Amino acid sequence: MQDTINFIKEKTNNFEPEIGIILGSGLGEFADEYCEHSIPYSDIPNFIKSSVAGHKGRLVFAEIQGKKVVMMQGRNHYYEGHSMQEITFPVKVMKKLGVKTLILTNAAGSVNECFRPGDLMLITDHINFMGANPLVGSNDDTLGERFPDMSEIYKKDLIKIAEKCAEKSCLDIQKGVYFASSGPSYETPAEIRMARIIGADAVGMSTVPEAIVANYCGLKVLGISCISNAASGISDVKLSHTEVIETTNKAKSRFKAFILEILKNI
Ligand code: HPA
Asked: Is 53 annotated as catalytic?
């Protein structure tokens, strides 16, 4: 950790970010427009590089709306074969760099049949169906406690602010529960029916490990899903990563306006 922090501080002229943003599939372009310093993951000690199409793989630092921000342009996923601990290491790095609030974004399938592709959803809670937890292993007491409370990971005050920002940007916003499956295969229709029955509104393959670690080390979390497709079994259309990227691409100007408004107000 200390090697990683020293390296980043040196490359960024001791930039001290207060807000972290992890940009999901198709949403990474946001960081291109606001880039003061950038470091490819492959250069950073102890980071793993991103291998998924639509994910760029670099850490970007910038001041946006008067806030100092560090962005992950692309994330690593459990389904790539990395451990839960490896994919959540960057969240711990953000904490050590001084980040207080973490905005997690992703592309997700809709489980709630009222949602439409292109909708943005504020995550109110999650269901971890990945079969693993990033906090397994010995505990680092300097970061957080062994048995962290998880009753309000996605902070209600941030959700309220985001709802007001959506109103200002004339955006219809959804709210709901994010269900995380490990992937890389999409879910079966039966799995989606189960997810709906147990209270899920959207499904995806990321975010939850990062949210668990962020909550554990005391970061306030705001989660935003871009609904990229109807989940398995809801429509006759077969699921594809191309569709996911195409839909998030169409939503990106709304997404950008929304994030800018949020940054102004948190
Ligand atoms: N399922 C899981 N992950 C996803 C989906 C989906 O339908 N869409 C985008 N990411």
From this structure: no
Query: Atom 9 in ligand 1: which residue has the minimum CA distance?
Result: 108
Cβ-proximal residues to 6 (8 Å cutoff; 6+ apart), any chain: none
pTM of the model: 0.95
Superfamily of domain 2-265: Nucleoside phosphorylase domain (3.40.50.1580)
* 43, 44, 45, 51: CA torsion to nearest 10: -80
Please write the tens of the pLDDT for every residue from 198-256.
Answer: 999 999 999 999 999 999 999 999 999 999 999 999 988 889 888 888 888 888 889 99
Active site residue 169: no
Could you confirm whether 79 is annotated as catalytic?
A: yes
Find out whether 222 and 158 touch, Cβ atoms under 8 Å.
yes
**List 71, 202, 205, 251, catalytic entry:** 205
Nearest protein Cα to ligand 1, atom 4? 204
Crossing angle of helices 241-265/156-168, nearest 10°?
A: 100
pLDDT higher than threshold 60 for residue 174: yes
- pLDDT, mean of residues 187-204: 98
pLDDT for res 55: 55
Q: Let me know if 55 is a catalytic residue.
A: yes
Strand partners, 242: none
Task: Tell me the per-residue pLDDT of 97-125, one tens digit each, with 9 for 90 and over.
Answer: 999 999 999 999 999 999 999 999 999 99
- Torsion of the alpha carbons at 248, 252, 254 and 256, rounded to the nearest 10: 130
Residue 52 has pLDDT above 70, yes or no: no
Domain boundaries, the chain: 2-265
Residue tagged active-site, from 31, 229, 230, 232? 229
| CB 108 less than 6 A from any atom of ligand 1 | yes
